[in-house]
Design a protein that fits this description.
Number of strands: 12
Oligomer: single chain
Bound molecules: adenosine-5'-triphosphate, magnesium ion
Order of helices and strands: EEEHEEHEHHHHHEHEHEEHHEE
Strand order of the largest sheet: 6-7-8-3-9-10-12-11
CATH architecture of the largest domain: 3-Layer(aba) Sandwich
CATH topology of the largest domain: Rossmann fold
Strand content: 15-25%
Helix content: 25-40%
Structural class: alpha/beta
């Protein structure tokens, strides 16, 4: 059995009065592994990530368990979490502008992170900041380091964010749609950079783009209505999805030869909203394979490297599924 670095069990996010947005997420990331967390908009991907880092919006409360190695992350005090963030978990968000300080040069911002998470002296931090900028493919690091975030392009800013996230040599990097706001060419460059720079770092990569999943991940976890409904090795899940939701997501992608490329298509019906009472399988109202059994919620059952929460899992290859 591989050693799990991150292990979330029944992770929940509640907005009060039982209004749950994350309804029991089971998720593991092994050391050095890249796991893609996918699902339609609003299914709770970002809140899951924010719960892991104790950065939930006001009014939201996390419960359940998420262990990073031997450390429980849920319910810890702010001081402990501040040390864990940056030190052990690095973060990259969709919008680097909101994460960077608009009034400080990027060089200083990297140096500040190094001051918190390393014992380097001032000089050493300056030198390391330039080295980090260089390592994420920023030309003329010495010039760029003196610039403000708004003087950089979106792709450059995201590279800066990656260098900041990696500055404390975290064990786990969480990236929430890090390339969504970038144009396609820059997106590919940033993705390649992430892949290269996280070869030894575990990466939890949140995306709604199945093409990106195939490109970057070792394993994929598919979320629906606040829970993981299927997970497994990328090739397995993309070629032989067992959950009807995963199959529907992949099947409705237009090009049959490239079933895994492009944004998630829309599936008829509606995603349950936050706090909505769900009885039985949450996908039941939209599922073509639903039976009477589905009135009871299926548990996420693990078989080998895969897991699925479905009473009637598919057994055919995606290529055999009628289009
Ligand atoms: N501060 C908040 N107050 C109330 N509801 C919220 C808040 N933040 C998020 N939600 C709701 O929780 C649900 C899950 O949100 P989340 O941001 O985790 O979705 P997501 O899967 O990341 O979606 P996307 O792909 O659009 O980023 C959504 O329905 C959202 O409207
Ligand atoms: Mg999100």
């Amino acid at each position: 059995m591989t050693e799990q670095l991150l292990e979330a069990r029944d992770l929940r996010v509640d907005f009060g009065q039982g209004r749950e947005a994350v309804r029991g997420v089971d998720l593991t990331v092994a050391r050095g592994e890249t796991v893609a967390l996918v699902g339609e908009s609003g299914c709770g991907k970002s809140l899951t990530a924010l719960a892991l880092m104790d950065l939930l919006p006001p009014g939201a409360r996390a419960s359940g368990s998420a262990r990073l190695g031997d450390t429980e992350l849920i319910g810890r005090d702010e001081r402990t979490m501040r040390r864990i963030r940056g030190d052990r978990i690095g973060m990259i968000f969709q919008d680097p502008m909101s994460a960077l300080n608009p009034t400080t040069t990027v060089g200083t911002q990297i140096a500040e992170v190094l001051a918190i998470h390393t014992s380097m002296g001032r000089r050493e931090r300056r030198r390391r900041a330039l080295e980090l900028l260089d390592s994420v493919g920023i030309p003329d690091p010495a010039v760029r380091a003196k610039q403000m975030p708004h003087e950089l392009s979106g792709g450059m800013r995201q590279r800066v964010m990656i260098s900041i996230a990696l500055a404390g040599s975290p064990e786990l990097l969480i990236a929430d749609e890090p390339t969504t706001a970038l144009d396609v060419t820059v997106q590919a460059q940033v993705l390649a950079l992430l892949r290269e720079r996280t070869r030894d770092t575990a990466l939890l990569f949140i995306t709604h783009d199945m093409g990106v999943v195939a490109e970057i991940a070792d394993r994929v976890a598919v979320m629906y209505a606040g829970s993981v409904v299927e997970s497994g090795p990328v090739a397995k899940v993309l070629e032989a999805p067992e959950h009807p939701y995963t199959a529907a997501l992949l099947r409705s992608v237009p090009d049959p030869d490239r079933p895994a490329i492009g944004d998630l298509p829309t599936i008829p019906g509606q995603v349950p909203s936050v706090g909505e009472h769900i009885e039985g399988c949450p996908f039941r109202p939209r599922c073509a394979s639903a039976t009477d059994e589905c009135a009871t919620a299926p548990a996420l059952v693990t078989t080998g490297e895969s897991a699925v929460a479905c009473w009637n899992p598919r057994t055919d290859l995606l290529s055999e599924v009628a289009r």
